[in-house]
Structure formats: C-alpha cells, structure tokens
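[job 0417] fold request received: WcaI family glycosyltransferase
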Amino acid sequence: MRILLYSISYPPEVAGSGRFNGELVKWLAEHGHEVDVITAHPYYPEWKVRADYRGRGWFVEKEGTLAVYRTPLYVPERVTGTTRIIHELSFALNSLVHWGRLLFKRYDVLIGVCPPLQAGLVPYMFSRLKRTPFVFHIQDLQVDTARNLGMIKNEFLLNFLDGIERYLLRKADRVSSISEGMKRNILSKGTLPDRYRMIENWVDIDTFQPLSQDQSLRAEFGISATDRVALYAGNIGEKQGLEVLIDVAVLLRHHPDIKIVVIGEGAARERLQEAARQQSLSNLMFFPILPFEQVPRALAMADVHLVIQRRATSDLVMPSKLANIMAVGGASIVSSDKGTSLSDIIVASQVGWVVEPEQASVLADTIVSAISSPLLKQYRLNARKYAEEHLSKRTVLPRFEAMLVELVNKHTKTNG
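[job 0417] inference complete; emitting structure tokens
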C-alpha cells in the first residue's frame, strides 16, 4: 500500500503520540508498504523546537521507502488555550506546502492522528479530493478535554470545534482509538459501529522489560537503596493535574524514606517546581526528560508508579505511559473515577490501585500502604503478563495493518 500519515507529533519526540506514530510507520515500511509522513519540527514535550531543527523551514527526511515531510510551526513560550490554537493552526496552514507538492501523488489510504483536531480535517479534505479512504485515529478527545478543563471558555468556539469533530467522526471511512471509554464517546458522536476499530497503544516488550533496582538509575539520581520511590514519568501538562503532588509531598513529610520522583517536561513543570521550592519539599524531586533508551532503567527505580490525571479527563484520554509501566512489571496507583476504562483495566487485571482523582490525602495514604503491601509483588507479575498478552507491538501493529488492508480492499472493490 501507499500510505500517507499526517500528525503534528513524530520522532525524535518520544512523549505523547510521537513515538507511536514513528513505530507505526517504521513497522509498515518494514512490511513492504510505501509510507509518507507530513509532520512538524519536533518540539514536544519541552514546547521548544529542538536545536538541530530550528530555522530549517520545509524539508524532507528519507529513510528507505519512508519519507518524512517536516513543517515549521509556531511554538508558544506560554501555553494557553489561545496560544495552543494558534500553534495548531500554524501547523495546519504551513503543512499545506507539503500537501501541495503531494497533490498529484496517488495514495491508497490517508491517516490523520488527533490531536490536534486539524490533523483530521486536512487529510479528510484531501481524501475527498483524491477519492482515497481516510482513517481518523484518536489518541485524545481534544475538544471535550479543552471544554472540561476550561482551556477554552468561548462556547461559540467550543461548539464550532465540536461540530467539526462530529462531522469528521461521522464521515471518516474508519475511526480508531485506544480505549473502551474513548470508544463510547466516539460512538455517541455519530461514528457507525462498523466503522470503528480499537487499536490500543502498544509497547515493545523486548525493550521494556523488568529490571532490578540495581540496574535502575537510582545511583545516577542520588536515590539510595533504602528509599521508597513513587514515580511519575511523563508529560507535565494541564491534563494530568500534578498539582496534587505538592499536597501529597507535604502530607508525606513525616515519611522521610518515601520520595516522590517526577521525570518529564511540559507546560506546567516550572509552576510545579516553584511551588515545591516555596514549600521546601525535599521529598519531591524533579528530573528532566530522558533519552528513550534510558526510560526502562528510569521506570525500574519505582516501588510504585503514579498515573495521575484530572477527573475532567476521565475516559477522554488513556495515559500512554501505562503500557510502558506494565511492560517493565510496574504496579501503579491510578487516579481515575470508577467505571472508566482506565479504572476497569487496573481493577480487572489486578495491576495496581485506583484512587479518586484530585484527592491528596487519599493518594498519600495509598502510596504509604501500597509500598508495603503484600499484593505488590503479584501486581507486578500481573502487569508484565498483561503487557505480553495484550499490548505487545507484535500483537497490536498487525491489527492496525489489517484495518488498512481491509479498508483499501473494500474501497478498490467498490470503486473498481
């Protein structure tokens, strides 16, 4: 197949959907397909264009049959609802340069990865012009998230964006997403059930394996073997609501052996670090994002992992970090409402504890009890087993390819 993927995120970004997009197109290319990618200059999660991409404009990176069309974009110093809209629009508009140069190239299928929402709109219009099947892959229900978190307060704008989203979800030839909760929301917005496919975020279970604490980064980070670590590793943004960790650290001051470790970058990092400094929280430690090859050793530092999110995002997002945590045999404390797909996975698979979101005292008490729980060892074994059986790249990626093959064959048969 000749495939075009359109997304704002792509390697060398490893946070968010960047890593998944990269692994997907590389896998497709290795299995004989010709793949083009239209994407941005890498900027996430630091919200700064990486030094080796600055000022380079529009250009193409090639690797075998894989071609990556890089697009410059506006990256705000301060991320707000308004600046984020401008940021995403700048990518959509600037990427038209590449869409123009590919106008006369024939593709069998187009894939748009959301967020941002425009990553569905542009390839959809191109697909109708070229009479090519369109797949809308949803990593995050962005409009609902923006509404629930108050990131966009203008009701007219929210309703306008919601209308575009619903239109795309109805018109796409296939819609895929990564969790049961997202599936329920998507079907409620007008996607026909026979057009929907579940494609969970995957993990390379050979790269992410259980390691001992001696093999971890504890020594490099100055964390002793006797310390107990509750680790958050991932994006530090608005959706996560990591402000709760400030209150948790205050409550755990009388447990000097417990360290809350935060690894990552994001729009809210500086604010959190300043709050920790003002409270003199020596038990709350921040470290920058790590090279991808170091992530398994970083995850191995944890006694328990923290998967934190706001109540307002329940079933609108599925934390991508969870697959990596499970693959390394990590037990998690997850903030999620009961009945959400995230909560259901944790409870049914017996891989951790679920706590009510935004409740510092409950989270602090659960960290203390989980670290010494007799269930901890079994939860770790269960997590690794779940990753091997359900989240392996070797299991999930063939299903993505099968969805594309099915769609292209159907389109070819229908249109001759």
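[job 0417] notes: The mean pLDDT is 92. The two ends are 16 Å apart (CA to CA).
[job 0417] exit 0
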